[in-house]
């Protein structure tokens, strides 16, 4: 017997639950009436045979999509596709046990996924959604324990440049023949800004008179890889930072070059709102472009290559060596948590603290 419940708003497919083997016509009619009432109450399929994949899709589209930025939504969908659904997708939610969920958490941990805690939280959120929608009555993932890695290290401190290394890298970037890449890395090196923040900049963000740069947006990838400009990572990421005179001079020269280049190519340059680092069609550049620049510079000049994000660690450590106080560095970096800045800052000043101890010992004439 089939019951026609219309179309699923997610998939557009017709909702036609069915069942066989009724002992009587009355029993079949009662089952049909029950399905109708159940659907009108919840707006969803019955929980009977409901898979985690289906419940997950409904949570993503009905609830999660409206709570986060597009880029965050896209990343979360990828996490489910790559790391969660392969283990849980086909499982019926009513039959999932705490023991099975714990085994999945342990596998994520054993396979070395740094975000295993986040995976677990996402699954808990899906089950909680199912409970609120009255599709299920329990959340087995919420009862699992979190494995702890005693040897976990959040920051790899060898992933930054010392002052001579950074100076050499910038010199090589300039000699590499790509003026845009040199300007990009000069800006990262002297401001500590994030890659996405730099790629989203336009010249209207620069106050040449006051020597200030406004960081108020970031470039991210949304659904299906679509490039989107959105608000920065955190509230503290929105900030105004000062620029040194040389960086400001280079930016002024770069603005003249970009404007002239795209005028010649026939691309309209919007006054003030011209991207600082556009692609060849004067549009948003792919986030992978700076990585290609970085690799090209380091390969051509046989340099030790660090990740793009490590230029922030470099900026932080060199600020510490320059004697700039911790709160000021944190504000320049736009860190929401001072502990993030502190961890790098203290490591960078470790040798200075040792020198201070030795200097005090020498002063006291302690052998």
From TrEMBL:
The keyword Nuclease does not apply. Residues 156-358 form the Tyr recombinase domain. Keywords: DNA integration, DNA recombination, DNA-binding. Pfam families: Arm-DNA-bind_4, Phage_int_SAM_3, Phage_integrase. One of its GO terms (biological process) is DNA recombination. Gene3D superfamilies: 1.10.150.130, Intergrase catalytic core (1.10.443.10). The keyword DNA-binding applies. GO terms for molecular function: DNA binding. InterPro entries: AP2-like_int_N (IPR028259), DNA_brk_join_enz (IPR011010), Integrase-like_cat_sf (IPR013762), Integrase_catalytic (IPR002104), Integrase_recombinase_N (IPR010998), Integrase_SAM-like_N (IPR004107), Phage_Integrase (IPR050808). It comes from the Bacteria. PANTHER family: PROPHAGE INTEGRASE, PROPHAGE INTEGRASE INTS-RELATED. Belongs to the 'phage' integrase family. This is Prophage lp4 protein 1, integrase. It comes from Paucilactobacillus vaccinostercus DSM 20634.
